[in-house]
Amino acid sequence: IDHAALQALDRVHEAGVPALVVGGRESAARSRSLDVLHLPSGADHAVISAVLVGMIGRQSEIDRYRMQLDTSARLVNNVHDEMDKLDEELQAAAMVQRDFLPGALPTLGGISVGALWRPTSYVSGDYYDVRQIDENRIGVFIADAAGHGVPSALMTMLIARAFEFAWTRQGEDPDAVMTSLNREFCLQQTGVTRFATSVYAVIDCRTGVVRYSSAGHPPPLLLDADHLRPLSNEDGGGLLGVFPDETFSVMTERLAPGQTLLLHSDG
Fold first, then answer.
1. Measured on CA atoms in the order 120, 121, 127, 128, is the torsion positive or negative?
2. pTM of the prediction?
3. Is the dihedral of CA 161, 164, 166, 169 positive or negative?
4. What is the spatial distance between Cα 147 and Cα 123, in angstroms, rounded to a whole number?
5. Are 205 and 111 in contact (CB under 8 A)?
6. Banded model confidence at residue 31, pLDDT cuts 50, 70, 90
């Protein structure tokens, strides 16, 4: 088989046209497809006829499978495009959510503040804020919106706005902040009940006294060199966003030198 014939064979293969090659060994190497079959030179006419009938008979199935494969490839490409768009949107959402978190944490008196916020995905249902109230006190706030992914992340936007409003008016009173947050959450319900847990602590950096209120949140932890103790939250209130008239108590603890107060979510 000559070079021109090999080129013709390539074009036949690219076009998906069934072909039968009766020729030498070189043609066999170029005939490894569903469209091109090879028979050795001198093949019987009956054999050639039978092969041609078989090729013609199966071609409709091959064409149908090829169309299905092309359709599947287009669908896969469309899915990849949509996934790329979703990835870009989620990355943008993650950047927006990070902008709602405090950029710098205060250090007041002998007390410094650190934070770790690490979403398992692009966005998180956890939110925190730390603010200086006056020359002696700071407020530490953390909330965990129910659920996962984008819905809970959107709830943190509501929590951030509601906390801003509550802190501006009543930032020195943990129970008043919780009450304001809860009322705002209840007002924002739109048929599907969504709730969050939260804790807000006011720390006097001069005396070490911590006053805090909890809304169904895991209790704060008090750590020293060799001991960890959960603080009480038995007198706290219920979840944010369930009962508009929920009341919240204020609990008190005192930090000793060298101790650490850890406010956390349930992960």
1. positive
2. 0.71
3. negative
4. 12
5. yes
6. very low
